[in-house]
Specification:
The chain contains 5 helices and 29 strands. By secondary structure, it is mainly beta.
């Protein structure tokens, strides 16, 4: 578990690519569409979530530069998705588990804001456990990446939450102050950027990093003592995320600084994943790690695969401190629950609740009580030795309130932020366990002291 970038789930998936018959289709502009389509995205746990229409069905995808072909999962939340030319396959991803059964489907129509690919290849994961929606608190149906970046110059404005897709043949980049353009290498459908990492007490080490917008973490590094990439003394074992083939663990730490181009970020959060999780990669080559959403979101950028360039400009998130999971617990949605709320004041006058709730069903009783159906938030994991574990919190505990605030009025990521506010703060959690309400209290502390 890893900090107030909330429920950390890594979406690093490596597919064993299976080439469809015929040449791959590309994205084209629909008739009447704007020349450079613009699309708004949600930023949830440092991940960009965009709407994608698949064979006429609207779905929600994570935009992931670290994935080669689109992957579909969690289709139980949709009425129906038509899939074409289906064949059974096995795919292998990050994690220590075995390859899993899946489907490949060729010739699908993918539409993304004024653009269409009439022959998109997609992989479908059948395992029900491959569902990232509970961990993020929003519905996610899949991941999409390379095919969009291959066909466009992609402008990502993290500050204002929008993407713009430009035609590489006609794109002319405007020169702005305080921006830097650096080279990227596109190899096997993935983009790599070079930078420098400085560990405590050492000199800067040159590193080659996978650009991975589908990872909500900041920086992953592969341990290599010959190259000087050693795990700093101040570290702790952590759950880093979930890959296609199982969970990923490693050492959580921080680096003195990370440099990309001319930009330097100090005291950056980092992790050294255990390399057995990368058994799907026969050879890491000269790759030293990956850079993910918690670091990338600090820039507005233009990713130009056709020209092999990345343009960076800092935004208002650049100076944010890196966040760690101080409490040591992970949360997720686990179904729905009813809650009862009084809707009158002491005089019996009905109160107007101007705040949004996340209930989907409301029942008003004769006693002026409102019953609402809201998402249930539970503790899904606890880090050994954390403040939460020390006071006796357990996996499966249902979170009812944080410091007196009922959690049903907040999104999952907001609840995680409340629990991990700042070191030195006392957190009081009201939970339900076996139909009993219990109160736990602990103080958030610095992880590396």
């Amino acid at each position: 578990m890893n900090g107030i970038h909330f429920l950390k789930t890594v979406f690093l998936l490596l597919l064993l690519l299976i080439c469809p018959r015929g040449e791959a289709q590309h994205y084209q502009l629909l008739d009447g569409a704007e020349k450079s389509p613009k699309i708004r995205f949600e930023l949830v746990n440092n991940l960009m979530i965009i709407p994608v229409e698949v064979n006429g069905t609207p779905l929600r995808f994570i935009l992931d530069t670290g994935v080669s072909k689109p992957i579909l999962f969690n289709l139980s939340d949709t009425d129906s998705v038509e899939l074409r030319n289906v064949a059974k396959i096995q795919i292998q991803g990050l994690g220590t588990g075995d390859p899993i059964d899946a489907l490949s489907s060729a010739g699908n129509i993918f539409k993304v804001r004024g653009m269409v690919n009439p022959g998109q290849l997609v992989y479908v994961v059948l395992d029900r456990d491959m569902n990232f929606s509970p961990s993020l608190g929003v519905t996610i149906h899949g991941i999409i990446g390379y095919d969009l970046f291959r066909d466009h110059v992609v402008e990502i404005n993290y500050g204002r939450r929008y993407l713009r897709f430009h035609n590489p043949a006609t794109y002319r980049q405007r020169k702005r102050s305080r921006e830097v353009t650096i080279p990227i290498t596109v190899d096997r459908n993935k983009a790599y950027v070079e930078g420098g990492v400085t560990l405590e007490g050492g000199e800067e080490l040159a590193v080659k990093l996978l650009m991975d917008t589908g990872s909500s973490d900041a920086l992953w590094l592969f341990r290599d003592e010959q190259e000087g990439l050693q795990i700093p003394e101040k570290n702790y074992e952590d759950y880093l995320g979930k890959g296609l083939s199982g969970t990923i663990y490693g050492k959580r730490t921080k680096v003195k600084q990370i440099r990309i181009g001319d930009f330097v970020l100090r005291d950056a959060k980092a992790a050294f994943p255990y390399l057995e999780s990368f058994k799907a990669l026969p050879n890491l080559g000269d790759r030293d790690g990956s850079v993910g959403g918690e670091l990338l979101k600090r820039f507005n950028m233009v990713i130009n695969y056709p020209s092999g360039e990345l343009t960076l400009r800092t935004n208002n998130l650049f100076g944010e401190p890196f966040h760690f999971n101080l409490a040591g617990i992970e949360l997720e949605h686990a179904g729905m629950r009813y809650i009862a709320e009084r809707i009158t004041d002491t005089r019996g006058v009905v109160q107007r609740d101007e705040e949004d709730t996340f209930g989907t069903v409301q029942i008003l009783t004769a006693q002026r009580t409102r019953l609402s159906l809201v998402p249930e938030i539970i503790v899904s994991a606890i880090r050994a030795g954390s403040p939460a574990e020390e006071v006796g919190l357990q996996e499966g505990d249902v979170i009812l309130a944080v410091n007196g605030k009922s959690v049903h009025r907040y999104k999952l990521q907001e609840v995680m932020k409340m629990i991990n506010d700042k070191k030195g703060k006392r957190i009081r959690l009201l939970i339900e366990r076996y139909n009993k309400d219990l109160l736990f209290s602990f103080v958030l502390r610095e992880l590396f002291e």
